[in-house]
Amino acid sequence: MHDYQRIADRIAADILSGRLKPGQRLPPQRSFARRRGIAASTAGRVYAELVRRGLVVGEVGRGTFVRAAPVPSGRALAEPATTAPVNLELNYPTAPDQAALLAPALAPLLRPDVLSEATRTAPAAGTPAAREAAGGLLATAGWRPSPGQVLFSGNARQAIAGALAALVRPGGRVGIDALTYPLVKEIAARLGVTLVPLAGDADGIRPDSVAAAHRTAPLSALYLQPTLHNPTSATMPETRRRRLAADLRPWGLPVIEDRIWSFLSDGTEPFAAFAPELTYVVDGLSKRVAPGLTVGFLVVPEGRTGQAGEALRSGGWTAGRFALEAALRWMTDGTVDRLTTAKRADASRRQRLVTEHLRGFAVQADPRTYYAWWRLPAPWRADTFTAAAAARGIAVTPGPSFAVPAGPSFAVPATGPAPARSPDPATSGAADCVRLGLASAPLEALEQALRTLASLAHGTPQGITDLPS
Q: Are 398 and 314 in contact (CB under 8 A)?
């Protein structure tokens, strides 16, 4: 065993035994090397090994700390990661009387003659009626997909996987916001796709950052959340969408546009309206309706259904026929529209609670969304705050879960002059931030949780001290 591993094992044993407490700071690497009589390079390998094991976290300009919370994982946003009584990680909205609204459309599917047809397999293209209904549901004032452009998956995550598999070969590069939906990182890793975090500002990804990345090594695609970005809630203005579309067109660079939360926004045109020949639109019913019986949509450019449909089929990501038939009825009988209206009102109520109870803190949120991006006051860090919140029965998502790891050093920088608007502070420093998912907790529980979190943030974390020599 290498010397650095033996030293890392001893530090790890101290952490796991509790001799080193969560939040304790390790000495600077040079000091650590001097105290132990080892080379600075060996100390660096010790620290890197502890980070790899998930036992410590390094923060630029602050140092290396014993981890106070489990290693962040995108999986926390897809399945329960905690038994905390108030879960502000999962984020699936439920409208009042939702079950009663959904039930009438399901009843006819249970008749034996209908059920026999509804339990057959369905192709990626679904049925003509489902394609027509989905096209109408997703249409905006300036964009309406034709039924022939619509494919179906089991959920929106599978639509993302299908789009990536269709567009990017293993080893390919995809440009993406430096903060993004965590499960995209897991999907990309499983497909062998490299995510390239791009510099942005308050308006979103900067076009010159895309150009710089593409010149470094060609990108295979771009992944965007231009409307109600998760986790920051930012919406890319039309001027930026038009500029980005114009810059991408000569390269023919495909765009995967994630619109899963866009149903909360009224009147914002999709990126696809400005570059329809490049854009693969991902959406679904898990947020609009419910996650347990849902359908995802993948709208592809005209004439591109073959490759994308094959990717969905080969990945096993096509929609189940029963779910497709249920979705068709919900889309055509007005159920989805009624749920959308109810959830927009519910999101606004929950954001008012955030405004009331987190007043004075640095919180970024759109009043239409079900999430808030909170830059914690010093000396709190995402790691220690997440652990302290969990100890009080509240699960929040630490900011690093959303950060896309850069390559050897930093994200691809933007070039040229500084943007007219200053970069949004909420798009950097994820180690200082947490995301609050507002949708899943009952209103009373959410309000109490926000009170508790505000009181916690006004205090200071315990046990943040230097590691003894």
A: no
pLDDT band at 84 (very low <50, low <70, confident <90, very high): low
Residue 53 has pLDDT above 90, yes or no: no
Question: Which CATH number does the domain 99-333 belong to among 3.40.640.10, 3.90.180.10, 3.30.300.30, 1.10.418.60?
Answer: 3.40.640.10
Taking all residues of the chain, what is their mean pLDDT, rounded to a whole number? 89
Please give the sequence-ordered ranges of beta strands (E in DSSP) within 30-161, or none if there are none.
56-59, 63-66, 86-87, 150-153
For 94, the 3-state DSSP assignment is: coil
Q: How many residues does the chain have?
A: 469
Residues of the chain with pLDDT > 70, as a percent, come to 89
Amino acid at 463: G
CATH class of domain segment(s) 3-66: mainly alpha
Query: Phi and psi of 332, rounded to 5°?
Result: -95, -20
Q: How far is CA 126 from CA 160, 315, 324, 356, 397, in A?
A: 17, 16, 7, 45, 36
Confidence of residue 18 (pLDDT cuts 50, 70, 90): confident
CATH number of 74-94+338-458: 3.90.1150.10
Cβ(397)–Cβ(434) under 8 Å? yes
The predicted model scores a pTM of 0.84
Query: Helix count (H) and strand count (E) of the chain?
Result: 15, 18
Q: Domain segments of the chain: what residues? A: 3-66, 74-94+338-458, 99-333
pLDDT digits (tens, 9 = 90+) for 295-318: 999 999 999 999 999 999 999 999
